[in-house]
Amino acid sequence: EAVGLAQQGEVRILVTTAPKPIDGIPSLKSEGYDAEFVNWRGFFAAPGISADQKAAYVKVLGDMYKTKEWEEVRAQNKWVNIYNPGNDFVKFLEKQESEIGSLMKELGFL
Fold first, then answer.
1. Is 17 exposed, middle or buried (0-12, 13-18, 19+ CB in 10 A)?
2. Rounded distance, CA 18 to CA 20, Å?
3. Is the distance from CB of 26 to CB of 16 less than 8 angstroms?
4. CA-based radius of gyration for the chain
5. What is the residue extent of each domain of the chain?
């Protein structure tokens, strides 16, 4: 989200928390720090939806993810190319909860 500010000269991006450098901006990992944080987005449904409803949502989001328009938006915003459909998203959320919860406790926020 800081890309626009950097392009306007308002800020200078020193490093990214993405897994790899982006457009010449080093990542924490490339600078020797074993740290990574991807600013992800997700779609959630209410508990109790049917398997058919879930499959329909997974399909439509998967189809959207493959479009040229989505790739243009993702590239323009320098978003990491990450997609975790269905149960992969649940596993991803569980991992995030474990990692971020531990970090929040270590930093004294929880």
1. middle
2. 6
3. yes
4. 17
5. 1-37, 41-110
pLDDT for 33-68, tens place per residue? 988 888 888 999 999 999 999 999 999 999 999 999
Tokens linked to 72: 């243009």
Beta bridge partners, 56, equal none
Is residue 8 within a helix (H) or strand (E), and if so which, with residue range?
Answer: none
**At 109, which helix (H) or strand (E)?**
none
**How far is Cα 39 from Cα 22, in angstroms, rounded to an integer?**
14
**Total residue length of the chain:** 110
- Mean local confidence (pLDDT), 65-74: 95
- Helical ranges in the chain per DSSP H: 3-7, 51-65, 68-76, 87-106
- The type of residue at 80 is V
